[in-house]
Automatic annotation (TrEMBL), chain A:
Gene name linked to the record: cd180
Protein name according to UniProt: CD180 antigen isoform X1
Keywords: Cell membrane, Glycoprotein, Immunity, Inflammatory response, Innate immunity, Leucine-rich repeat, Membrane, Receptor, Repeat, Signal, Transmembrane, Transmembrane helix
Cellular component per GO, a single term: plasma membrane
InterPro entries: Leu-rich_rpt, Leu-rich_rpt_typical-subtyp, LRR_dom_sf
Matching Pfam families: LRR_8 (PF13855)
Primary location group: membrane
Location(s), subcellular: Cell membrane
Residue intervals passing through the bilayer: 59-80, 685-706
Membrane topology: Single-pass type I membrane protein
Record organism: Ictalurus punctatus
GO molecular function, one term: lipopolysaccharide immune receptor activity
Automatic annotation (TrEMBL), chain B:
Gene (name only): LOC108273140
GO BP, one annotated term: defense response to virus
Signal sequence, renumbered to the chain: 1-20
Pfam family, one: E1_DerP2_DerF2
Protein name: Lymphocyte antigen 86
Gene3D superfamilies: 2.60.40.770
SUPFAM superfamilies attached to this UniProt entry: E set domains (SSF81296)
Keywords attached to this entry: Signal
The MD-2-related lipid-recognition domain, residue ranges: 40-155
Length: 719, 158
C-alpha cells in the first residue's frame, strides 16, 4: 500500500463527516477526533512488518477500525466540495477565496463569475488561457493593481465588472489589445477622476459605470465620451458644479443616457445643456443643496427623452414652485419623473408647459387632487399617481387627459372611493392599476365604475376590500386580456361571472377564497385563458381532482396552485391541457412526485418546491425533456445510497433543476449538488480494505504457524 | 485489544459531530447605557452586518442610526420584514417594499452586488417610554428572493 494513514482532527463544519478526503489526486483515509499518530508504512519493508508481531497487531486493529468506519459511513455520509459551479456557458467561482483561476475551469468558458475572491494584482497572464470569455465578473476581488494588456487574449470580452475594487493603479495599457469591450463597470472602485479611466483602447465601449467613485467634477468628460457610448453612470459621486464648458463636450452626441443621481449639486450654469440631444438625464436626489429651479434653468434648451427629477426618502425635502415649472416651456421632454417631490400651489398654470409630455410620474408627490381643468395635457399617454392621497378616483379629473392609455392610482394613502363614471372620458385607456388602494366600490361592482373603458385590456384590482360583484362584473370591459384580483375578495351573484371575457388571457385569483372544485362553472367562458393563478386558495379535502372548470380553459399554459393545501392529486387532472408548460404546485403537502398526469414533459416548468417529498424515483424525472425544468427545493429529500441514482441524475442534469442552490438533503442540510455519496467507490474501498484485512490475518496466521513449526524444529535441534 | 477499541469507538464518536455545529456571528452591542441596551446579531449565513446608535441616552429624542451591509446580489427590488416580540408576544409585524422597479424609495435602490449600502439617518424619537425587553427580527430579500440581510436584535429599556 503506497501512501499513509493519516489521523487528524476534525475541522468545524461540514467536511468532518467524510469517509474519504481527496486532495490533489491522492486518496488519504481521514480519521477525525482520533489521537493516533501518523503511521507511515510506506518506508517499512513488508518483511520487517511481518517479523514484528506488535506492529502487525496495530495494523490489524487499524484495518478493523477502517472496516467498522466504512460500514458506518456507507449510508449517509456525504461531504461538501467547495468548488466552482458550472453554469449554462461558464463557471460560477464566486466567494471561494480563490487567488487564481482554478485549473479545472475549461479554457472554452464564455462567462466567469469570479467575484468575492482575492486577486490583488491583474497581470497579462491572469486570464491568459480563457480566450473565449464574453463576460467576466471581478466584483470585490481586492484588486489593487491592473497591469498592462490584462485582457489581451480575450478578443470576445464584452462585459467586465470591476465593482468595489480598490484600484490604486490602472496601467494606461490595461485594456490594450484587440479588446472589444462594451460594458465596463468601475462602480465603487475609487476612480477619482474621469481622466483616470484608460479609455484609449475602449473605442467600442457602450456603458461605463463610475457610480460611487469619489469623482468631484466633470473634468475629462471628453475622455469617456467614446464613439459608441450610450450610457454613462456618474451617480453617487461628489460632483457639485455643472459648467457649460463641461457639458459642451456632449455636443455631437445623440441619445446618450447620463445619470447624476445622488450628487449634491450646488450650481448648474443656466442653459448649460442647451442644444443637446439626450436619451435620458437622471438628476434624482440631486437637490439636497440646491433648488430644483437652478437645474431647470440649466436644462433650458435641452431635448431629452427621459428626465428624472424625483428625490428619495433619504434626500432632503424639496418644493417645486409654479415658476420653476415654467422652464419646461424651453425643455423638450417626453417622460418626466417627479417621485417624492412636493409641489407648491399646483394649478392649471403649473402644467402650461407640459403640452408635449407623454409620460408623467407623480409617485408619492403628496397630491390629494389633480387640477380641475387642464387643457395642456393632450399628449399625455401615461400617468402614474401612486402613493398619493386621493379621496376618490374622480379626484384625478380624468377629463384633463383624454388620450391616456395607462393610468395608475395604486397604494393610495387613504380609502379610495371608486365612484361611478369617474373614468368615463378615458376611452383610450388600455391599462388601469388600482391595487393596494383600499378601494371602496359601493353596493355593486364594477360595471358603473368602469363605464366608458371600452378599450381596457389590463385591470389590476388586487389587494383591495371585499366587492359585491354584479352577475357580470366586467361587462363594460369586454376586451379585457389581463385581470388581477389577488387578495381582493368578492361576493358572487352568478355562477359564471367571467363568461363575457372571451379575450381574457391572464387571470389572477390568488388568495381570494376561490373554490375551484365547488363552483364548477366559475371559469366558464374563458376559452382563451392561458395563465391562471390560484395560489393560496385551499382545495377542500386536500385532493386535487378533475373539475369541469378545467374543461372551460383548454388553452391553459400556466397554472399556479401553490399553497393550496394539496396532499394528493387524482389521476389525469392535467391530462387535457395540451399547451401546459408551467405548473406551480409549491408549498403544498405532496409526499409523492408524479409526472405521469401531464400531457407532455417535453417542455414544461414544474415547481414542487416546499412540499414533503422525500424519495424521488429517478425513472420519473428521467422523462423530463431537455427544455423542461423541475424545482424540488425545500423538500425533505433523502440523500443516501437508496436515492443515489436520483442524486447522480441531479448532478448530470443540474440545468433541469431550478433553485438547485436551495435543494438540500434533509438529514445533513447539504446541497444535493455538493453531495458526494461515494456509494460505488465506498463499496470498492470496503472490498479492498476487507481483502487487505483478510490477507493480513492470513499472513499473521501463517507467521504464527511458521513460528510454531520453528519452535518444534528448535526442540528437535536441542535434542 | 485496547488500541482496537479506541479506533472503533473514536470512529463511531466522530460521525454525528460534524453537522451539529453551526457558525454564528458574534453578538454586537449597538448601544449600552444605564437606560437602554441594544444588542444584535446577524442571522445571515454569509455575512455580518454593522449597526450602531449614536447616543443611547438620546433614543427617546432623535437617535442617529448608522447601518452598513454588503450586497451579495443587486437590489433593483428590496422588501423587508420587521417583527417585534415583547416578552415572547408578537407585538408588531410589517412587510415593506423598500425598492420597487418603478418606485426606488431610497438612493441605494438599484445598487449592484459587491457594493456597500450605508444608511445614516435620524430616527423619529419614541413618543412614549418603553419598558422591558423587545426582540426584533429584521430581514430583507431582493427581486430573486435572495436574502440580502438578516438581523436579530434585542432592545432592553430600564
Amino acid at each position: 500500500m503506497s501512501g499513509f494513514f493519516i489521523c487528524q482532527e476534525c475541522g468545524t463544519g461540514t467536511v468532518s463527516a467524510h469517509c474519504l478526503y481527496r486532495t490533489r489526486g491522492k486518496t488519504i483515509f481521514r480519521f477525525c477526533n482520533s489521537s493516533l499518530q501518523i503511521v507511515n508504512i510506506s518506508n517499512t519493508s513488508p518483511y520487517t512488518v511481518l517479523t514484528r508481531r506488535s506492529t502487525m497487531e496495530r495494523v490489524l486493529y487499524i484495518c478493523v477500525g477502517i472496516v467498522v468506519y466504512f460500514m458506518l459511513c456507507i449510508e449517509t455520509i456525504p461531504w461538501m466540495k467547495k468548488q466552482c459551479i458550472k453554469t449554462a456557458d461558464g463557471s460560477d467561482c464566486s466567494g471561494l477565496a480563490l487567488q487564481l483561476v482554478p485549473d479545472e475551469i475549461p479554457d472554452s468558458i464564455k462567462t466567469l463569475d469570479f467575484s468575492f475572491n482575492y486577486l490583488p494584482t491583474l497581470y497579462n497572464s491572469t486570464f491568459q488561457r480563457l480566450r473565449s470569455l464574453v463576460s467576466l465578473d471581478l466584483t470585490r476581488c481586492s484588486i489593487n493593481f491592473m497591469y498592462e494588456d490584462v485582457f489581451e487574449h480575450q478578443l470576445d470580452l464584452e462585459s467586465l465588472i470591476l465593482v468595489a475594487n480598490p484600484l490604486n493603479f490602472i496601467s494606461d495599457r490595461a485594456f490594450a489589445g484587440p479588446l472589444a469591450l462594451k460594458h465596463l463597470s468601475l462602480a465603487g472602485s475609487t476612480v477619482r477622476s474621469l481622466t483616470d479611466v484608460p479609455t484609449a483602447h475602449l473605442e467600442f465601449l457602450e456603458t461605463l459605470d463610475l457610480r460611487g467613485s469619489d469623482i468631484h467634477n466633470l473634468d475629462g468628460l471628453e475622455n469617456v465620451l467614446l464613439q459608441q457610448m450610450k450610457r454613462l453612470f456618474l451617480g453617487m459621486n461628489s460632483i457639485e458644479k455643472i459648467k457649460t464648458a463641461d457639458v459642451e463636450k456632449l455636443q455631437g452626441t445623440s441619445g446618450l443616457e447620463i445619470s447624476f443621481k445622488g450628487n449634491d449639486l450646488v450650481d448648474v450654469e443656466p442653459n448649460a445643456f442647451q442644444n443637446l440631444d439626450m436619451g435620458s438625464l437622471d438628476f434624482s436626489g440631486c437637490f439636497n443643496k440646491m433648488d430644483i429651479s437652478v437645474l431647470l434653468k440649466g436644462l433650458e434648451g435641452v431635448k431629452t427623452n427621459k428626465l428624472y427629477l424625483g428625490i428619495y426618502e433619504d434626500s432632503a425635502k424639496n418644493y417645486i414652485t409654479q415658476t420653476a415649472l415654467q422652464s419646461f416651456c424651453n425643455i423638450s421632454v417626453s417622460d418626466v419623473d417627479f417621485q417624492l417631490q412636493h409641489f407648491r400651489d399646483l394649478s392649471n398654470t403649473g402644467f402650461r408647459c407640459f403640452a408635449h409630455v407623454q409620460k408623467l410620474d407623480f409617485t408619492r408627490a403628496h397630491l390629494s387632487a389633480f387640477p380641475l381643468s387642464l387643457s395642456n395635457l393632450s399628449m399625455l399617454s401615461h400617468l402614474v399617481l401612486d402613493d398619493n392621497s386621493f379621496h376618490s378616483v374622480c379626484d384625478v379629473n380624468a377629463a384633463n387627459f383624454p388620450k391616456v392609455t395607462y393610468l395608475s392610482v395604486s397604494r393610495n394613502g387613504k380609502y379610495l372611493h371608486f365612484k361611478e363614471n369617474c373614468l368615463e372620458p378615458l376611452s383610450y385607456l388600455e391599462e388601469l392599476q388600482l391595487s393596494h388602494s383600499s378601494l371602496m366600490t359601493g353596493d355593486f361592482c364594477c360595471n358603473k365604475q368602469l363605464t366608458g373603458l371600452r378599450e381596457l385590456k389590463s385591470l389590476n384590482l388586487s389587494y383591495n376590500f371585499l366587492m359585491n360583484w354584479e352577475p357580470l362584473p366586467f361587462n363594460a370591459t369586454p376586451k379585457l386580456k389581463h385581470l388581477d384580483l389577488t387578495q381582493t375578495k368578492y361576493v358572487l351573484n352568478s355562477s359564471s361571472p367571467f363568461s363575457n371575457l372571451e379575450k381574457l388571457q391572464t387571470l389572477n385569483l390568488s388568495f381570494t377564497d376561490f373554490k375551484l372544485l365547488e363552483n364548477a362553472d366559475i371559469l366558464k367562458g374563458l376559452t382563451k385563458l392561458r395563465v391562471l393563478n390560484l395560489k393560496g386558495n385551499t382545495i377542500q379535502g386536500g385532493v386535487l381532482a378533475k373539475t369541469k372548470n378545467f374543461d372551460y380553459i383548454p388553452l391553459l399554459e400556466s397554472l399556479v396552485l401553490s399553497s393550496c393545501g394539496i396532499k394528493a392529486i387524482s389521476g389525469n387532472v392535467f391530462k387535457d391541457f395540451a399547451y401546459l408548460n408551467n405548473v406551480d404546485l409549491s408549498e403544498n403537502q405532496l409526499v409523492k412526485l408524479r409526472l405521469a398526469d401531464f400531457y407532455s414533459l417535453n417542455q414544461i416548468q414544474l415547481n414542487f418546491a416546499g412540499n414533503k417529498i422525500t424519495v424521488v424515483d429517478v425513472k420519473i424525472v428521467e422523462d423530463l425533456g431537455t427544455r423542461s425544468t423541475i424545482d424540488l427545493s425545500s423538500n425533505p429529500l433523502a440523500c443516501n445510497c437508496t436515492t443515489y441514482p436520483f442524486i447522480m441524475w441531479v448532478k448530470e442534469n443540474f440545468s433541469k433543476m431550478k433553485h438547485i442552490e436551495r435543494t438540500f438533503c434533509n438529514a445533513t442540510n447539504e446541497k444535493v449538488l455538493d453531495v458526494d455519496l461515494q456509494c460505488v467507490f465506498s463499496n470498492r474501498a470496503l472490498g479492498i480494505v476487507l481483502g487487505l484485512a483478510i490477507a493480513v490475518t492470513i499472513i499473521i496466521s501463517l507467521l504464527y504457524f511458521v513460528k510454531k513449526i520453528q519452535a518444534r524444529y528448535r526442540s528437535y535441534s536441542v535434542l | 485489544m485496547k488500541l482496537y477499541s479506541v479506533v472503533v469507538i473514536l470512529s463511531m464518536l466522530h460521525l454525528p459531530s460534524g453537522d451539529t455545529q453551526e457558525d454564528f456571528w458574534p453578538v454586537h452591542t449597538a448601544c449600552d447605557s444605564d437606560k437602554i441596551q441594544v444588542i444584535y446579531r446577524s442571522c445571515d449565513p454569509i455575512q455580518d452586518v454593522g449597526f450602531s446608535l449614536s447616543s443611547c441616552t438620546d433614543i427617546r429624542t432623535q437617535p442617529y442610526v448608522k447601518a452598513s451591509f454588503l450586497l451579495r446580489q443587486s437590489i433593483d427590488e428590496l422588501y423587508i420584514s420587521v417583527v417585534v416580540f415583547h416578552n415572547g408576544l408578537n407585538v408588531f409585524h410589517t412587510d415593506e417594499p423598500i425598492c420597487l422597479p418603478n418606485f426606488p424609495r431610497f438612493t441605494f435602490c438599484g445598487n449592484r452586488r459587491g457594493e456597500m449600502v450605508t444608511i445614516q439617518s435620524s430616527l423619529p424619537g419614541l413618543k412614549f417610554p418603553l419598558k422591558g425587553s423587545y426582540d426584533i427580527h429584521v430581514h430583507g430579500i431582493n427581486q430573486n428572493g435572495f436574502q440580502i440581510g438578516c438581523v436579530n436584535a434585542t432592545a432592553t429599556f430600564q
